[in-house]
Amino acid sequence: MSDKNSMNTKDFLIGSLIGGIVGASAALFLAPKSGKELRNDINEQAQIARDKTTQFTSTAYDKGNEWATYAKEKSSNIAKVVSDQSAQVVDKVKEATSNLKTEAQETANSTEELVGDLAGEVQESGEEIAETVKQEVNDIQAKIEEEAATAQSK
C-alpha cells in the first residue's frame, strides 16, 4: 500500500511539473508581446530553469556524498567492532587451549567443563557481534528513511 501511495505521489508531482512547464510555455507564446519581449521572457525563464536544475543537481550530489560518508562511517564502526570482538574470541580460545592442555592432564571431566565454558563464551561473542551489526544496519536504514522523508516533504 505504501508503494502505491508513493507511486501516486510521484506521478502527481511529475504531472504537476510537466503541466506547469506546458502552462508557462503556453502563456509565453500566447501573450500579446513583441518578438523581442517574447525572446527576452523565454531567455529569462530558461535561465531560471537552468539555475533551478543546477541547484537541484548540487543538492542531490551533496546528499549522495553525505549518505556515502555516513554509510562508510557505519561500516567502519561495524568492521572495528567485529575485529575487536573477534580478537577477544581468539584470545579466549588461546587461553582456553592453554588451560585445556594442563587440565587435560589432570582429569577428563575438567576438560569437558572448559569446552562447555568456551562454547558459551564464543556463542555470547557471536550474539554480541550480531546485535552490534544489526544495530548499525538499523541506524543506516533509519538515516536513509529520514533523508527520503525530508526529500519527499520538500
Automatic annotation (TrEMBL):
The lineage of its organism: Bacteria, Bacillati, Bacillota, Bacilli, Bacillales. Pfam families: YtxH. The chain crosses the membrane at residues 12-31. This is General stress protein. It comes from Halalkalibacter okhensis. Keywords: Membrane, Transmembrane, Transmembrane helix. InterPro entries: Desiccation-related_membrane, YtxH.
